[in-house]
Design goal:
alpha/beta; 12 strands; globular; binds S-adenosylmethionine; binds iron/sulfur cluster
């Protein structure tokens, strides 16, 4: 196992397949246009597969494909097929906004995808339009049910809770998920990227989210999957389903973080809140051997000391306070949420 400075092993890899997205969610892409990564700088499927194989050799057993919107990558099933046959990879999953899922899920399942996360913050069409600013709720719901019919399990719904936006949708989403057999993952609103105007006032804490749900549908804490997953999981006491809460702001899990990220243009990033990454694509395209890439990735991981969310909480609790704008970060669409 490859450990960092704080003995956190490298176990997970999140790969951003593209920085493009067909939505413009207020919490992620508040602007209409961005400076997009040049198409020729985006990693090819062959390059992604080669790097993924090397990360698996280093101990990664779980890969999540994300973005931007990963389903915008043409022929995505070809990549799924290559990755799902990597020896040593135990878990391959995908996070999507669901807009193109209905038409693509069957090919993804046949290529080897077993499970999926679909982002959905409200069941109210008007609110959906306000929060996600493009796309259409009906298409996302169609995608969710198509995934269910195809047999993907589990299907998790990711909900970003932002005060004033959708805290009053929590119970609707719980009831919808319990009825239809979906698992829910509530995510505390985070100061990802540089433009979403995050403030702590917009945060709905894990405690608040749990209190709202527990008052109606009592919960029992289960814990974190493998002890290191971002989500703290809960079962409903009546046995009808489960939820999880990712509390990166109020209960950071930096001390157990085993995740590396690969940006759409091939940079290795060791924290969701990093300002820079290491250009692995340059190595690939300059003919580096597998051994050389493994040596460099190992050296980067062994020096890793990231703990951004711990530091944020400490600043928030101190007299100094915390201003998201003072910290320049890579955009979430580039490094993969
Ligand atoms: C960046 S998206 C990429 C995948 C895909 N486009 C989607 O929306 O599912 C990955 C996840 O990050 C979440 N996310 C985006 N901005 C966030 C923020 N400011 N705070 C918390 N979660 C966020 C999204 O809701 C989504 O579940
Ligand atoms: S959260 Fe996903 S769907 Fe929304 S803008 Fe970001 S990448 Fe696109």
């Amino acid at each position: 196992m490859l450990d960092d400075v704080y003995t956190r092993p490298l176990k997970d890899l999140r790969i951003s397949l593209t920085d493009r997205c067909n939505f413009r969610c207020t919490y992620c892409m508040p602007f209409d246009e961005y400076e997009w990564i040049d198409k020729k700088e985006i990693l090819t499927f062959e390059e992604i597969t080669r790097l993924a194989g090397l990360f698996v050799q280093l101990g990664v057993d779980k890969i999540r494909l994300t973005g931007g919107e990963p389903l915008l990558r043409k022929d995505l099933e070809k990549l799924i097929s290559k990755l799902s046959s990597l020896n040593g990879l135990e878990d391959l999953c995908l996070t999507t906004n669901g807009s193109l899922l209905a038409e693509k899920v069957s090919a993804l399942k046949s290529a080897g995808l077993r499970r999926i996360n679909v982002s959905l913050d409200t069941l109210n069409a008007e609110k959906f339009a306000r929060i996600r600013r493009r796309g259409d709720l009906a298409k996302v719901l169609e995608g969710l049910f198509a995934a269910k019919r195809c047999g993907l399990r589990p299907i998790k719904i990711n909900v970003v809770v932002e005060r004033g936006n959708n805290e009053d949708d929590i119970i609707d989403l719980v009831e919808f998920s319990r009825k239809n057999g979906f698992a829910l993952r509530f995510i505390e609103y985070m100061d990802v990227g540089n433009s979403n105007n995050w403030t702590s006032e917009k945060l709905v804490s894990k405690k608040e989210i749990l209190d709202i749900i527990d008052a109606r549908y009592p919960l029992r804490e289960v814990g974190r999957d493998k002890g290191s997953a971002p989500s703290m999981d809960y079962d409903f006491i009546d046995g009808r389903g489960e939820i999880g809460v990712i509390a990166s702001v109020t209960e950071p899990f930096c001390s157990t973080c085993t995740r590396a990220r690969l940006t759409a243009d091939g940079k290795l990033v060791t924290c969701l809140f990093s300002a820079t990454g290491y250009d692995l694509k340059a190595l690939l395209r300059n003919g580096a051997t597998d051994d050389k890439i493994i040596e460099i990735v190992s050296a980067i991981w062994q020096k890793r000391t990231d703990g951004y969310s711990d530091e944020r909480l400490e600043a928030m609790n101190s007299g100094r306070g915390y201003r998201a704008k003072d910290h320049k970060k890579i955009e979430m669409i580039t490094l993969g949420g």
